[in-house]
Amino acid sequence: MADRSEPRRRGRPRGAKSGDTKARILDAATAEFSEHGYEATSMRAIARRAGVDPSLVHHYFDDKQGLVAEVVSVPLRPDRVVQEALEAPIDELGERLVRAVLGAWDSGPVRPAAIAALRSAVGQGPVARMLREFLRREIMHRIASALGPAEDAELRAELAASQLVGVIMVRYVLAFEPVASIDVEELVRRVGPAVQWHLTGRPGTLDTVASQANNSTHDE
Amino acid sequence: MADRSEPRRRGRPRGAKSGDTKARILDAATAEFSEHGYEATSMRAIARRAGVDPSLVHHYFDDKQGLVAEVVSVPLRPDRVVQEALEAPIDELGERLVRAVLGAWDSGPVRPAAIAALRSAVGQGPVARMLREFLRREIMHRIASALGPAEDAELRAELAASQLVGVIMVRYVLAFEPVASIDVEELVRRVGPAVQWHLTGRPGTLDTVASQANNSTHDE
């Protein structure tokens, strides 16, 4: 915001007008994301298109991630859900990610909107590119960063995410029983270790660096 | 075929006519699957709708699984790919399934058709229900059967499939790098153990029954 080039400030909106402004910003964001994708779109470009000051965009939507959630009408910030789970110790990340992601999808208002967003991401419409770039930048990169400087951190993060995406597909989209109805904690027990293994496991084996660390602690 | 109720037999088609007949059967199959789903549709109902003898449907398409592959224009029989992988020893199933499924998707003619089919399965169109029932009946059930009488065989099969579906999503649909370009054998090393773990692992741990069996063999 420091290098804002357009000096006109309009202050906070009041009354009925604010709904119009917010809707105009959302329309502009949808158009910019559709034309340029998630990464190449700036908050400033959205403000310009909507004909408002950039500070207003930040006022209504916090940041670009927040705008994406609103564009696809998902009442949830997936980047925050994942970020919070990633604050756990590294050998608990698998279970924490499964619990956080499935807990979010299980909630009533989120599920239908999230399924619709997933369908868009898989499809070929203009929203697809935005959602894929968002997933890559805000989810995969975040998970990879939590793994530290490992050479294969990006690959591990994507494979961990692949397991999460797969469970989401079977539970919510394909809706196969028993996975569709089983308790989240049972899935945490069964899927958590697979995610953990992608994050910290030794390829070709079923050992994980984390579980080995645990074992040597127990041995002492 | 023993209890065929319509006695009219037309024999095998000849010349240009056979193409018409095959196309008519495919149209009828598409319509029947769309209206009634995969499980409730019989070869006989398709023959009736196409106005041909049921033996002709079997002549052109072998069986119902073959018809599904033709309806969605995928030049591959996913049920056979999986069935072949399932003939491996139980503690190799994870790697074998990953190698077979990704090997099939990697092949040039299969990939675009398979991606289109996956988009349909995720969508809400009439083909979605057929594909989901097909996946459930011909893929999940087959994997579950390979696990023997385990009480949670269906759940394990679906979770193993969830890992496969997730890698397919990240590699082919979302096309995230590095997973999109990495060698299949590297994915076999990294994803195989996760699939194996779903099939034979002990929930809440990273041990598998299979790897423990191996370990005790090594100890002796």
TrEMBL record, chains A, B:
It comes from the Bacteria. Residues 19-79 form the HTH tetR-type domain. Residues 1-21 are annotated as: Disordered. The keyword DNA-binding applies. Residues 42-61 bind DNA. The keyword Chloroplast does not apply. Keywords: DNA-binding. PANTHER family: HTH-TYPE TRANSCRIPTIONAL REGULATOR RUTR, TRANSCRIPTIONAL REGULATORY PROTEIN. This is AcrR family transcriptional regulator. It comes from Agromyces ramosus.
